[in-house]
Amino acid sequence: MKLILLFGPQAVGKMTIGHELEKITSLKLLHNHMTIDMLHPLFGFGTETWRLSTIFREEIFKSVANSNLEGMIFTYVWAFDMAEDWDFVKKTQSIFETAGGEVYFVELEADVGERLQRNKSSHRLEHKPTKRNVVESELELIKTMDKHRLNSLPEEMQEKNYIRIDNTHQDAETVACWIKDYFDL
Description:
Blueprint: E1 2-7, H1 14-24, E2 28-30, H2 33-43, H3 47-65, E3 71-76, H4 83-98, E4 102-109, H5 112-118, H6 122-127, H7 134-147, E5 162-166, H8 172-182
Parallel strand pairs: 1-3, 1-4, 2-3, 4-5
Helix pairs in contact: 1-8, 2-3, 3-4
């Protein structure tokens, strides 16, 4: 059982790379907006959306960890300056490791100009309804970047199964192949 935690700032390419990685492995993708976009029509981006999304995700993780699936890919915007995000990651890691699984940490980074371009991509807009208001999404991307630290500091990630990739000038298919090869998936 494997969990690939694919994390980085908004519009860095997590979901797109996750889709490509799903094509070349037996792992299933749960991108973070699959739970968010389900709840947003009811609760907006309020507290209830985040609370329920966390519950749904944890239950999905438990079910996958105890299933016959080979594993999953999960995308996440990890605010490194927020203890609750660290707690969520540790709890998720524990769910899989307690069930005998392995967790692989894949951190993505890309420059802001590239991320702003990716924020408008047809693939992103097709799969993430709450991002279709591109102006609002772009403002949120910039605001979140200014408010939170969305990439780790050097030496901050101490996990044995960890890789950091600057995918500013790389296509998703290439990056997915790198991840597959690096971790021998």
